[in-house]
Amino acid sequence: QVQLVESGGRLVQPGGSLRLSCVASTGTLNFLSMGWFRQAPGKEREFITSLRWSDGRKYWADSVAGRFTISTDNTGNTLYLQMNNLEPEDTAVYYCAGKSSQSTSHLYSAAVGFDYWGQGTQVTVSS
Fold first, then answer.
1. How far apart are the C-alpha atoms of 66 and 80, rounded to whole Å?
2. 40-94 pLDDT per residue, tens
3. Whose C-alpha in 16, 56, 76, 124 is 20 to 30 A from the C-alpha of 42?
4. What are the distances in angstroms from CA 127 to CA 9, 11, 44, 86, 87?
5. What's the rounded Cα separation, in Å, for the pair 103 and 86?
6. Cα dihedral angle (57, 115, 24, 69), rounded to 10 degrees?
7. CA-CA distance, 97 to 35, in Å (whole number)?
8. How far apart are CA 87 and CA 97, in angstroms?
């Protein structure tokens, strides 16, 4: 069974940086795409960024463009989300997600397009 496990969430001050990690039990390269989402209390799950393996294309939400970066390690087993210049509005539970070949959606920048999810890691931005 495929498992995605996020880590790295913690309390950080506004303007600070944080890097989240996601380890995929079968490796990230077995997916068509890997992405990051977040969900704040009382809000719907929000797309942040994703990476499509076939052509290396990256997708970003406007709210994080220029501040957040998605990447992987050399082995392809770990997905990262580098977050810079964090704002209180970035406070949320952050989820790693994988889009498999069995996904019934063609979307790469929406939750409906991803069929494997981690348990989430809490990021709190506050002074």
1. 16
2. 999 999 999 999 988 999 999 999 999 999 999 888 889 999 999 999 999 999 9
3. 16
4. 16, 9, 25, 11, 10
5. 32
6. 30
7. 5
8. 23
DSSP H or E run through 93:
strand 92-99
CA distance 113 to 119: 17
Token pair for residue 101? 């070949």
If we measure between CA atoms, which residue out of 91, 93, 96 comes closest to residue 39? 93
Q: Which residues of 100-114 are buried (b: 16+ CB within 10 A; e: fewer)?
A: eeebeeeebbbbebb
15 closest CA partner among 62, 67, 80, 60: 67
Closest CA to 99 of 39, 51, 64: 51
Whether the CB-CB separation of 126 and 15 falls below 8 Å is answered with no
CA gap 83, 96 in Å, rounded: 14
Count of CA atoms in the C-beta half-sphere (13 A) of 24: 26
Of 110 and 28, the one with more pLDDT: 110
